[in-house]
Amino acid sequence: MALGLFQDPAPQSAIGPDGHPNISTFIPGIEGYVRMWAGGRVKFLEPLKVGLDAARESSIIRVTEKEGRSGRLVFVTVHHEFYQQGTLCISEEQDIVYRPPAAVKSQVEPFEETFDWVDTIEPTPALLFRYSAVTFNAHRIHYDWPYATGEESYPDLVVQGPLIATLMIRAFTAANPGRRPTYLSYRGCAPDRRAALQGIGKA
Q1: What is the mean pLDDT of the chain?
Q2: What is the Cα–Cα distance from 146 to 14, expressed in whole angstroms?
Q3: Alpha carbon distance 162, 101 (integer Å)
Q4: Is 27 helix (H, G, I), strand (E, B) or coil?
Q5: Chain center to CA of 28
Q6: Does 3.10.129.10 match the CATH number of domain 103-203?
Q7: Architecture of 32-102 per CATH?
Q8: DSSP bridge partners of 98
Q9: What is the pTM of this model?
Q10: CB 103: neighbour CB atoms within 10 A?
């Protein structure tokens, strides 16, 4: 969730054709695989304060392989801890999946349950591009429509998983003034723009 902090820019020579850093440098055997954000969990322990130095400790805590409908899937869980003045403020786990290139089918299903509140966001190309810029994410599926639909076979531009999580937190705080979220768990179900809108509704 604090993706705007502690970016580690990769030189252009280390960027793959999809816009992401070359993944073979730390996970051998998945050259040519495409990267997707699968979900995450965030604990909000203390607020990060503007003007104070911060530190992040990161580690890969789990790598698992599964067989899906598109073939072999490699799931990587990364753990981040954000500190200020020696105090742990945010603890976050990010789930990332690497899959072979294959056509992606949209599987958006209507929700049957009711909600206490709903927030609707239109994920325009400009919004997706600006969020990618803030998070230093050059993955082309978020802003390059010909690449997303032609090369990686998505039905549309793909909304960033962290953006969905950010909008969910924003919707919660707007609907519950005076309350501070302490925990968020989210999971990507269908990688397209319509799925993101419904995901926000479920927050």
Answers
A1: 81
A2: 22
A3: 22
A4: coil
A5: 22
A6: yes
A7: Roll (3.10)
A8: 35, 74
A9: 0.74
A10: 9
> 188 pLDDT band (50/70/90 cuts)?
confident
Q: Is it true that 32-102 and 103-203 share their CATH fold?
A: yes
pLDDT value at residue 42: 92
Helix, strand or coil, per DSSP, at residue 88: strand
Tell me how far the alpha carbon of residue 103 is from its chain's centroid.
20
Using 50, 70 and 90 to split pLDDT, how confident is the model at 145?
Answer: very high
Whether 101 contacts 152, CB under 8 Å: yes
Where do the DSSP E strands lie in 85-147? 87-99
Where are the chain's structural domains?
32-102, 103-203
Among 41, 48, 40, smallest CA distance to 89 is for: 48
Question: Could you tell me where the DSSP H helices lie in 47-159?
Answer: 125-134, 145-150
Torsion of CA 23, 123, 161, 147, to 10 degrees: -20
Residue with tokens 């990769």: 10
> Would the pLDDT of 15 be above 60?
yes
Q: Tell me the one-letter amino acid at 161.
A: G
Query: How far apart (Å, rounded) are the C-alpha atoms in residues 118 and 128?
Result: 21
